[in-house]
Structure formats: C-alpha cells, structure tokens
Amino acid sequence: METNNKKSIGKMLIGTWNTRTIVAVAIGVALFGVLMVYGGIKVFTNTSLTSAMVVVAVVAAMFGPLPAAVTAGLGNVLADLIGGWGFWFDWSIGNFVLGFFTGLIPIFGARIEDGIFTVKHAIWYVVCVLVGNILAFGVVTPILTYVFYSSELTITWMQAFSAIISDGIVLIVVGLPLLFFLANRNAKKNNLVKED
Amino acid sequence: MDLTKRLFINIIPGTTFLDKLTGKTKIRLFFLLVLILIATWDMRILAPVCLIGIIGLISIRPNPKTVMGLTVFIVLVNLFNLFLIWVVTPDYGASIVGGSTLLLRLTDRYIITAETLWYFLTRFTKFMATFFVSLTFIQCITPSEMAAGLYANGISYKISTIVSIAFRYIPEIARDFSDIKISMQARGMELDSRKTSLWTRLKQNVMILAPLIIVSFDRVGNIADAMDLRGFGRGKKRTYYAEHEDTKGDKIVAVINVLLILAFVAILIGRIFFPGTYQVWAPWINA
C-alpha cells in the first residue's frame, strides 16, 4: 500500500478532479444540503448544531482542500434552495473557506483512503478546523454580509459566534472519531491496489 | 411529515409552460429572480415577486399535498426565526425601518412596535418569495436539464455534473435515512424528541449519521466506474440529451429576463447612489 507519488503543494490544494472526485463531491454536496436542513438541532436563528460539517471532514480527508471547499460551498447553496430561508451567499462563501481549511489535512500526510491517520494528523486537523472556523465566520462572512446585504451586524456576529462554536464542536467531537474510524476501516479492508 | 415525500424531485419533464422551457432559460430566470430578491428590502418589489412565485408554482400543477406540507413547515421555520430575532432585539424596527411606534408593551424590554412588525412582514414576504421561486424551480427542472442549463450558461461541465448528481442524489439520502432510522428503532432506540434529552439526541444523531455517510461514500466507486465506462470526462466539451432547441416560450421568457436584468441594475443603482437612511422601506416613513 505504498503511495509514493509526491505531489506538489499546488496540485494538492487543487486536487485531482477525476470522475471519482466529481462523484464524491456531488454526493457530499447532497448530504451537506440535506443534513444542514434536516439534520440539526437549533442553536440560534438560522444556525443550528448541524451535523453537515462532518461530511466536509470526510471529503476533506479523502480528496483535499478544493473538493472539500466546493462541497461545503455548493452544499450550503443547495441547503438554501431546499431550506426555504432565503439565499445567503455570504455564508456559503464562509463555508467554502472553512471547507478549504478543513481539507488541508492531506497536506500533512494523512491518507484516510489508505488508512493513514495518526494522532499527529489529528492535532493538525484540530488546528486547521479552529483557524478555518475563525477566519471563515469571524472575518469572511461578516465582511461579505456587510458588502452584500449591508445589514445590521449584531445578529450576524451572534450567528457567527454560534456557528464557530457549533461547527467547531461538530468537526472535532464528531468528525475526529469518524476519521479515525474510517482510516481504521480502510486499513483493514484489503491489500489490493487499484490500477489507474 | 415523511422525509421521502418532502425531498421529492422531478425526474420526468412535465408538460406545462414552465416545464417546457429549456434548462438554460429556467436557470437564468431563477437566478435573476433570486438576485433581485437578495438585493431588495422593498415591499413594493417583494410582494409582486412573491405573487409571481405563487402563480408559477400553481402553473406547474404540483402535488398539492407535498406543497402544502412544505409550505406549512417553511412558514413555521420563518415565524420561529422572526420570534428569535424579536427575543434578541425587541426594538429591531427602530434601526432598520426608522421609528418605533409603540403598539404593545409587555415589559420594559419586550415591546411590539409597528416598525418591527413591518420589518417582520417584509422579511417574511422576502423569504416566502424566495421559497416559492425555489420550489417552482426545483419542481419544474430535472437533474439532466439542470446540468444542461448550467453548461449552456458557461459553467464547466464538471461543475454542472456535480450539481446535477447532487440534485439527483437527494431522494436517495431520504431513502437511506428512513431505512437507517427504522432499523435503529427496531433495535430499541428512542427517537421521540419529547422523551429524550439533548445529549441523547446528539448521540442518536451521530448513530444515524455515521452509517448514512459511510453508505453514501461507498457508492462513489460504483457510480464513478459506471461514468468512466460511458466515457465521462474524455472530451473538453459535451452535449446534453436534455437540452433542446428554444421554444416559443423561451423567446418570451428571454424578453422577461432582459427586463429582470434592467430591474436588478436599477435596484443596484438605487442602493449604491441613492441609499436611504434606513434599509427597509415602509409606507409611512419618509427617509
């Protein structure tokens, strides 16, 4: 199970957009959208303790930053489409940023598909999630809210605060065990290597 | 209401006027209406667009039961959101509509003003309009038409494919979800939210979520292989079976779309060059 293809950082950031990635991102988008609308427990207006971010963690671990970012961003748009609470592209872009940061873990050497996910990767994952979360909902979304909707920022700040807390909790408390579980499962599965 | 019914999407094209338009036109019309709905807080624009949404929805003759169930659900969600805003900032109308005409005083903090109610009405209309327009769009477009339409509007076909697979996959999630839920209940899990604490509900959420995610991502390989075998991703361009030539309806809607673009530009110019003191227009306030 030696994957010896050392890819450049730039390529890893973009990811390989083959059919597998496209299908995985598509399914991730659908899951994210549905979970965001129906799989949450309400915390504050328009934000809830949504399990959707876990999907992003899985895509991130398997395909890297840009696929994870697209999953989160398009997933949020899809959620807006079926949720009926209006379109909030500021939040979609915030989720895009968070997805991108969550997706940085393969760069630190984690490979869920091959069963490689150690404590070191877990620590990097937590750091990425925290930084991404604060940057996405603490900086990017409020700025965009101001630019797009020029609306009262008090509520946005409160929403941002609860989003940072709830997404952080979901990504770390639920996402981390799931990543360990997936890595373990993939490591055990078999020793066949798929030829490209 | 049953989740499988709520997450219903259209796979066979219908026969009404909106159904017969090309994917390209449907997407343009939808996108422009959403842009206008985002850009404005003016009841004089929101109310007509909401009406257009309702007329559009009725014109495609959807299943009345599904639509009613969904509408009631969305109305409740939006009312609850409005209530939360009121709890946090009872005098919200003062900052956003401009004024606080007292109607009812519950306590010193919790007051109801005409401006806040007007803002809530505007906000409610705005979101219901978005909901009706979105629902009409979802109900009159098929996943293939969506991909074809996005591609015709200049979006890379790989992104178009992502959107159309995601859209197509929604009912599968609903099905998987109810399967998992039933099998969990069969093992004795209590899913009634009145009988369980928040922490138990969280744990249960995870217990349903994990199989759902694993089952879904296990399918990736199969679907990708099937697509590869059919030659997906070989060429730089592609054509779509679902895209057809413009009909008479498309030409009519194309004119409407141009008018919508002009309206959108007018709204933007109004907001950038003649911003009122307050964001939300109200008939009795001269800003």
Task: Give an overview in words.
The complex is a heterodimer of chains A (196) and B (287). Chain A is mainly α. In chain A, 71% of the residues lie in helices and 5% in strands. Chain A has a single domain, classed as Arp2/3 complex 21 kDa subunit ARPC3 (Orthogonal Bundle), CATH 1.10.1760. A two-stranded antiparallel ribbon of chain A has the order 1-2. In chain A, helix 2 packs antiparallel against helix 3 (52-63), helix 3 packs across helix 7 and helix 5 (89-102) packs antiparallel against helix 6 (119-149). With 287 residues, chain B is mainly α. A two-stranded antiparallel ribbon of chain B has the order 1-2. In chain B, a hairpin with a 5-residue loop joins strand 1 (102-105) and strand 2. Chain B starts with a helix and ends in a 14-residue tail after the last helix. The model of chain B has no long low-confidence stretch (mean pLDDT 85). The interface between A and B is large, with 53 and 63 residues.
